[in-house]
Amino acid sequence: MSNQPQVLKGFRDFLPKEKRARDFVMGKITNTFKKFGFEPIETPTIEYRETIMGKYGDEADKLVYSFEDNGKRAVALRYDQTVPTARFIANHFNDLAFPFRRYQNQNVFRADKPQKGRYREFTQCDIDIFGSTDPLADAEIIACTYAAYKAIGFKQIKMVINDRQVLMGALQPFANSSVNVFSIIQSIDKLDKLPVAEVIGELVRKGMGNGEAGQAIEAIQKAKPSENLQKILDLLSSLGVARDEFRFDPLIARGLDYYTGMIFEIRIPGFTAGSVGGGGRYDNLIEQLCGLKMPAVGVAFGFDRTLEAAVQFNLIEDKVQSDSILVTVFDESLVSESAVLAAKLRKDGMICELYPKVDKLVKQFKYADKKGFRYCAIIGPDEVKKGIYLRKDLQTGEQKTIGI
User: Fewest CB atoms less than 10 Å from the CB: which of 14, 167, 251, 377?
Assistant: First the structure.
């Protein structure tokens, strides 16, 4: 109908099958976070605008949903989970044991142009270690990321790693009054998506000479790992990360301004929508927010892209189809018997739905088939007398007698 209410562009509903797929992938990720000792937290959807704005760079700030609430307060929806968590650390410093490991799986909001794999509301899965500058903390973040994607079932993962100090050292000589080094980095960050000529054109429009823009790209292409980054790379193999699934890449820039050291991205070979996550070290953000000196390193998984990749490679297991059963209701006089059977099956650990009204069996079978149930349980007068029920396999049509 033309007057039917619609979902805002860039936002989504999820049907039961889609939500089960999301829960499957989220479960794999969360279980891995727990194995590495990360603890769960949550922060509010809305923060004061001053908390959110000015932390990401001018281009990212344009994508922040900000507004005035009914109390005339300037507020904003969270753009990511890193900045709100920095505020969280400052507020709850005395309640936490440092170094503090946290994981956080919540939705974030960006006023971006919707496209495949990119939405205005989407889920991020974050892990961070606060209170350590040691390369081991950086390596743990990368190793946990690797383990999570392996737990989902990806056969191949490519993690590309760089150091912000490598970028700054190579690109600082090309900064000028029109374009600072952070703006150059934001353009360099697009080299994996755009041809070199387009990135050069963007740098020229920002205020660099054409020759200087080309020289800047050449300078970063020739860069080598820093001593600190080499220590991180050496630790990864000890932590179980396959050597052929990570590499140094001096072109990885991560466009956000708050990164100060190691940075990395996660890519899935064969998945063309872009990287599925990324992160790095940000040692100054909490101090910038509240004056508390607190080094930090972390990563954010792009959950929706990760899910799309998992669907593309057929990694989703839908337990409802394989393990579930619908208990049918034979007639009005046998409602209690069906209820007793459903309770017993649930107690035995089965995923079990009791059809919620008296209806024709053929209609109940069609309902079960549409919902993806593998089995139906039938308990009529004869079955009650014998203390049994019939289990009908909806895929094969086979019926099996089972004692209650």
Answer: 14
How far is CA 141 from its chain centroid?
Answer: 15
Query: Which of 310, 301, 403, 362 lies closest to 82, judged by CA?
Result: 301
Amino acid at position 60, single letter = A
Return the pLDDT at 319: 59
Parallel/antiparallel/unpaired status of strands 100-109 and 39-40: parallel
Contact 132, 99 (CB under 8 A): yes
pLDDT at site 1: 47
Please say whether the beta carbons of 342 and 65 come within 8 A: no
Report which of 273, 282, 316 is spatially closest to residue 300, judged by C-alpha positions: 282
Tokens of 306: 């990760």
CA distance 211 to 219: 12
Cβ atoms of 316 and 24 within 8 Å: the answer is yes
| 277-281/262-267 β-pairing | antiparallel
User: What's the pLDDT at 237?
Assistant: 92
- In whole angstroms, what separates CA 113 from the centre of its chain? 19
Low-confidence residues of the chain: pLDDT under 50:
1
What pLDDT score was predicted for residue 113?
A: 87
Tokens coding 55: 């932390």
